Amino acid sequence: MATRLVLLALGPALALGLGRFAYALVLPLMQNAWGLSYAQAGILGSANTLGYLVGAFFSHRLLGRVGYRKGFFLALFLQGPILALTGMENLPLVFSLRFLQGFLGALVFVGGAALLMALGSSGRTLGIYYGGVGLGLLLAPWLLWGAAEPTGAWARLGLYSLLLGLPALLAWPLLKEPPPPVQGEGSLWPILPLLLAYGLYGAGYIGYMTFVAAVVGDSLVLFGLLGLGALLTGPVWGPWVERVGGRKGLFHVLLVLFLGSLPPLALHLSALSALLFGLSFLGVITALTQAFRTLLPPSAWPRAMGLSTAAFALGQAVGPAVAGFFAEMAGRGEGALWAASVLLFLALLPTWSRPQKP
């Protein structure tokens, strides 16, 4: 049973690892073949983030209406054709497809987590699920190896997304729907500080991911180490979070993430920085999910997952702009990494003390 449930990790691998992060690998091909400017590239990146934000806001309502199982797999298998069509040289169409991919990616991410939580899955299993993003990060460069133009590159991503999604269907019979909301049990007040921390984490994490390769160089090695670290999320952080609890575990993961992001480490020991960052950036989600299970009744878990993903997406939308602004002020890319580290430090603060219910 556990082995088949782990196949759900292909959801984040495809929706985020290939659907979102592989864009950075195809972007140089798009710039060379289409004459895409940096401004246009940024707009397409923002379209994906905006779609993820909107999808996160509506995920609980939409998945609750169509069913979490159906919604998860429908969103997962639509990734293939959407990615394949993204190679068409039509910027309005590509913008729309990047938005739609982000929207469906949020449904995959939230839906799979809610389904596993409904089964009472352990922190280790949830960590493996979230760590699926790392599998996508590791696969993307190899799936695109030798691609010379964007149309073929996106076609490859679409085809492999469709094929790699098929094994996840083996988990279908084991899944059950999350419980419906119960009146009087839906207050999310206990987790509001954690939502704030998660939003700040989103801003700091994406600031590091956006600029570290430009500052340090050797993007292929960094990409690989980030992916390798992410794959270890479940075995490393899952048992620890179960032992110390979600809230305390969240503080510990964010602390390691903050230390890994510090510019002196990134500049002088870039491999260690990337490995620590990759190991911890998805551990944050593992710890947050465990905190939800402790602080909220089961009927509130799906809504909490949707709102937390929206808080993360909002932070992720503003993070690159904040980091870029500080890089301009500092006159060098290192300023962006310092901004990311400061945001991650601020994310630590709401996790420090336990809120008291009024």
TrEMBL record:
<feature type="transmembrane region" description="Helical">
    <location>
        <begin position="272"/>
        <end position="292"/>
    </location>
</feature>
<feature type="transmembrane region" description="Helical">
    <location>
        <begin position="304"/>
        <end position="323"/>
    </location>
</feature>
<dbReference type="Pfam" id="PF06779">
    <property type="entry name" value="MFS_4"/>
</dbReference>
<dbReference type="InterPro" id="IPR020846">
    <property type="entry name" value="MFS_dom"/>
</dbReference>
<feature type="transmembrane region" description="Helical">
    <location>
        <begin position="71"/>
        <end position="88"/>
    </location>
</feature>
<dbReference type="InterPro" id="IPR010645">
    <property type="entry name" value="MFS_4"/>
</dbReference>
<feature type="domain" description="Major facilitator superfamily (MFS) profile">
    <location>
        <begin position="266"/>
        <end position="358"/>
    </location>
</feature>
<feature type="transmembrane region" description="Helical">
    <location>
        <begin position="100"/>
        <end position="119"/>
    </location>
</feature>
<dbReference type="InterPro" id="IPR036259">
    <property type="entry name" value="MFS_trans_sf"/>
</dbReference>
<feature type="transmembrane region" description="Helical">
    <location>
        <begin position="126"/>
        <end position="145"/>
    </location>
</feature>
<feature type="transmembrane region" description="Helical">
    <location>
        <begin position="187"/>
        <end position="208"/>
    </location>
</feature>
<feature type="transmembrane region" description="Helical">
    <location>
        <begin position="220"/>
        <end position="237"/>
    </location>
</feature>
<feature type="transmembrane region" description="Helical">
    <location>
        <begin position="157"/>
        <end position="175"/>
    </location>
</feature>
<feature type="transmembrane region" description="Helical">
    <location>
        <begin position="249"/>
        <end position="266"/>
    </location>
</feature>
<protein>
    <submittedName>
        <fullName>YbfB/YjiJ family MFS transporter</fullName>
    </submittedName>
</protein>
<keyword id="KW-0472">Membrane</keyword>
<keyword id="KW-1133">Transmembrane helix</keyword>
<feature type="transmembrane region" description="Helical">
    <location>
        <begin position="335"/>
        <end position="352"/>
    </location>
</feature>
<feature type="transmembrane region" description="Helical">
    <location>
        <begin position="40"/>
        <end position="59"/>
    </location>
</feature>
<keyword id="KW-0812">Transmembrane</keyword>
